[in-house]
Design the sequence.
């Protein structure tokens, strides 16, 4: 009963390094999202996808790229990490039913850029 | 863009009732969610309102007024484990099957004995 799984959970990067955060969901959801959460700022949407092969920009997309090559996976890339990207990153997936768009979150990935 | 406001912090006593307000200004409104988030954990779904009125679910209730751009989350019979951040989130629809969920900054609730 995995739900939404994010890897890695913790990572320390040096400024300028690159990395990829992987998100996997086993619920066959169409929608997937990447959020970042910073103290006093709440959850902010970075990028999202409404289906396999599609991606779209959210509120704070600069410095990030994403890919959704397979329906179950949504990758978040940092090409050249900056200290401003130190944050907690949450992946989420969702489906739509009569209740609306119910979102399920992964457990978070703590990223520190030094 | 979206503008969602909720109080930063609240304190309430165990066993009491607390109401957390959320006001929003947005276009393409398609529903309002409340999420609970304990420190160091992921947000978890509490409630969803799309029509005006009150939705009750156990000790938690959520109210929505679309004309006023206003919602509240009501927590009854507070327990210590209710100490958490409560996130108001507005869903919008921008066409072509594109839904987005925008979160407020969250209200940190502290329940004291």
Sequence:
């Amino acid at each position: 009963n995995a739900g939404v799984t994010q890897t890695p959970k913790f990572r320390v990067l040096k400024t300028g390094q690159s990395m990829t955060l992987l998100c996997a969901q086993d619920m066959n959801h169409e929608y997937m999202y990447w959020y970042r959460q910073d103290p006093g700022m709440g959850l902010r949407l970075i990028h999202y996808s409404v289906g396999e092969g599609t991606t779209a920009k959210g509120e704070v997309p600069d410095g990030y790229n994403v890919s959704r090559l397979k329906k179950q996976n949504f990758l978040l890339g940092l090409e050249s990490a900056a200290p401003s990207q130190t944050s907690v990153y949450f992946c989420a997936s969702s489906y739509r039913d009569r209740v609306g768009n119910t979102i399920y979150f992964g457990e978070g990935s703590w990223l520190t850029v030094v | 863009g979206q503008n969602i406001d909720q109080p930063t912090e609240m304190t309430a006593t165990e066993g009491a009732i607390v109401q957390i307000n959320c006001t929003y200004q947005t276009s393409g409104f398609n529903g309002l969610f409340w999420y609970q988030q304990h420190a160091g954990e992921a947000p978890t779904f509490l409630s969803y309102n799309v029509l005006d009125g009150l939705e009750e679910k156990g000790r938690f209730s959520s109210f929505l007024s679309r004309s006023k751009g206003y919602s509240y989350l009501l927590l009854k019979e507070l327990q210590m484990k209710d100490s958490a951040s409560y996130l108001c989130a507005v869903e919008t629809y921008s066409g072509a099957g594109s839904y987005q969920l925008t979160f407020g900054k969250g209200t940190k609730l502290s329940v004291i004995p």
Notes: Chain A has a mean pLDDT of 93. The CA atoms of residues 5 and 67 of chain A lie 16 Å apart. The longest strand of chain A covers residues 87-97.
